[in-house]
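Lab meeting prep.
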Amino acid sequence: MAGLTRMSMRVALQTARGPASAVGVMSSQRRFLNLHEYQCKNLLREAGCNVQQFEVATTPDEAADIVERMGVKENVVKAMVLAGGRGKGTFSNGFQGGVHVMDADKEKMRELAGKMLGHSLVTKQTPPEGVLVNTLMVAEALDIDHETYFAIVLDRENNGAVMVGSPEGGVDIEEVAESNPDAIFKEKIDISIGVTDEQAARMAKNLGFTKGDEGKIAAEQFQKLYELFAKVDATQVEINPFANTKDGRVVCFDAKMGFDDNAAFRQKAVFAQEDTAEMDPREVEAAALGLNYVGMDGNIGCLVNGAGLAMATMDIIKLYGGEPANFLDCGGGVTPEGVASAFKIITKDPKVKAILVNIFGGIVNCATVANGIVAACKEIKLELPLVVRLEGTNVDEARAILANSGLPIISAIDLDDAAQKAVATL
C-alpha cells in the first residue's frame, strides 16, 4: 500500500500545494498561479522596491537592442522558464546554462540569445524533454557585496504573515534551516499594523545591513515588500538574494511570489499574467471549466466528485492491478455539461483505454448525473468501455436511467466492483 500512498501524495501536492517556501503553505484544491521572475520584478518595481534594470526579449535582435538601450558594463541573461536550476541546465542544442553574465556587447548578446531562444532547457526540475524558452530577461549585472535571504510567507503556526530572513542568502534556505537554524530570523506581522519600524530595523540588523544607510534602506524595503504582499493577496514573497552592492545599493536580485487563488476575482491584473505555455493543455482547459485535472501515466481515466474520493478511486484501481490515467475532480456541482467536458478532456489522452466514473450523490442528485453521463456519451460518441458507480440521492432512479439508455455502460455496485470491472475491460 506504500506505493498507493505515494501516488495519492503526488496528486495531493500537485493540486493543493503552492510554491515551495521556508514556511509551508497549504490551501484548497486549486492550481496555483506561478509568475516568471521578470513578472515578479515588475510587481516589485511598481511597489517602489529596489531592483536592477531589466527588460525582456523574445528574439535575438530584441536582446541586442536592450544591451544598447540599457548602457551598462555587464548584463546578466536568464532564460524565463518556471523551473529551478536554470544556471546548471542544458539546452536541446547542447548549449550549457540558462543563466549567463557577459560584457555588454550587442553582437555577442545576439549570438547568445540565438543559442537560448527557441530551444528547450533541461534542468533538474523540468520534464526530461525540457521546457521551450520563448523569453529572456536581460538585466543589469551588479557587483554584489553580501547576499542575504528575505521572505514574507503565510505561517500556520502563527496564523498569519511572518517575515523570514537569514544572513546566509543565495543558497537553498531549507538547507540553512537544517544546518544552521540560528541563522534564521523570524518576525510575526500584525496584519492590523503591518511591519513596524522596530521590526524592520531589527531584521535589517540581523541580516547584517549595518554600513552607512544600508540598514535604513533595507528596513524600508522590507516594509514596501509587505505592503506589496498584502496588496496583491500574496501567500509568499521571496527575495533570494536580497543583497547589498559594493557601491552601497540594497537590491532585490531575484523574486518569487505565490498568490491566493481565492483572491483571483479581485486580482485580475495579476492572474491575467499567467503563462500557460509550460502547462498541460488539458489542465488549462479543465481549470477554465472549473474542473481539477492532473494527467498521469496510466490507462484508466477517472471522473470523480471530491478530491478525497478521487484519490481513493485511484488507489483502488492500482490495488486491483490497473493504473489511473488522471486525477479529475468535478466538484460537488456535477452537471451534464460538466460530465461531457470531463469526458472530452479524459479522451484526449491516447493512453486511456477505459473510463471509471465514481460519483457519491450527497448534494448532487444521482439521476441528474446519470442523465449527464448518457447525454455526454451520445454527444461525444464515446467508444471506450465505461464503468459507472453511483451512490446516494436517487441512486435507484439513476441506475434505471443507465440501464435503459441503450448504451454499453457497465454499472457497478460499489468501488471495489467498479475498479475490478474497469481493470477487466483492458
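Slide two material, second protein:
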Amino acid sequence: KKKKKKVVKMDVSSDAKVVDATATSTTTTTTATVTDKGGESKTFFGKDQLTSKDYYFDSYSHFGIHEEMLKDEVRTLAYKKAIEKNPHLIQDKYVLDVGCGTGILSLVAARTGAKHVFAIDCSSIIVKAKQIAEANGLADKITFIQGKMEEIELPVEKVDVIISEWMGYALLYESMLNSVIFARDKYLAEDGLLMPDKATILISAIEDEEYKSSKVDWWNNVYGFDMSCMKEMVMKEPLVDVVDRKQVVSRHEAIYEIDCNSVSVEELAYEVPFSLECKRNDYVHALVLHFDIEFAKCHKRVWFTTSPFGYYTHWKQSVFYLKEVLTVKEGEMIEGSLKCFPNEQNPRDLNFELTVKFDGELTKTEFTQFFIMR
C-alpha cells in the first residue's frame, strides 16, 4: 500500500481517515457499478448497511443541500464577516471546523491566516472539500478528516478556535450542537473561542387560515371521501416554511438562550413558559419559532436572525399549527409553555409538547399538543 502523504508534521490517529483528494468515494460508502440495457454504466452509492442515524450523514453527501446552504447569503456572509473582520481571533491559531461540508468556513479561516485548520465531516462530500481546497491553493493549510466528531482523533491535543454551522430547523433539529459540545470539551484550549457562541430561540403567533385550510382541513373531503383521520398525522409535524411578516399577530418573545461556551448536552432539552402580546385584532392559527445567532467575541458585533422580519435563510421558520383557532384582540396575552426534547427512536429528531392558555374576550381555552420534527 502506498503511504499516505502527511499534510502537516503530525501523527494522525488510525481512527481518523485523512481524505485523499484523488478518491471518487471513501471507504465509509460502498459503491456498485451497473450497466443498463443501453450499455451505459452508472455508479450507485450503497445504503444497505446504513442505520437511521447514518441517513443524516448520507443526506449531506448530495451537492444540492450544500448549494442551498452556500447560496444562503445571510448565513454564509455572517460567518465570513466574523472571521475576516476579526483576523486577530484566527491568525496563527489552530482551528477546528466541525461539520465542514464543502469546506467554506475552513477556506475562509485558512485564507485569513490560521496556523492550520482541521476540517471534520462524516459524509463523502469531504472528498470534494479536499479537492476544492487544492483548487484554491489551500490544501497545505487544511487537514480533512472523514468521520464522526465523537469517533475520530485529531493530530493535536488542543485547538484555539472551533467554528461550526451547527444550527438546524427550530435551532436544535439534527442535534449537531451535541458534536460541537463534545469537540469543545475534548479539544478546545482553556482560553479558546467558539464561533458562533450565542443562540436564542424566539416564538410568535401568526394568522394563517388559507394555508392551514389547504394543508389540514383539505382532508375533510377528498374527492367526496372523508379522510379526516389524516389530519392528526398532518398536525403532528411542524411545517418548515417562509412566514410572511404581515401574518405575524403578536410580538415575538425570546424563550431560550444558549451560551455555547458552557451549555451541556442535557440542557439542549428545555421546557420554558411564554407570554405573547397580540398587536391587533385577528385570528391565531399557529405559533412560530425562529432563532438568532451571535458571534459575541468579535471586535464589532456580528449576528443574524431567521425572523420573518429578516432576510430569507434556508432555515426559514418552524410553524406549529394549533388544533383550536384563537380569536384575539389587541393587547390580549397568549400564555403557555413549550417543551422540547430529542426523540427516543432517533435523537436527531425533536419532540415538542406545546401548551396554550388563552383567556380572551372572545375565546377562552386551554389545550396541549404534541409534535415531532423529522
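Talking points for slide two:
The helical segments are 54-59, 63-70, 73-84, 104-112, 125-135, 177-187, 209-215, 231-235.
The chain has a mean pLDDT of 88.
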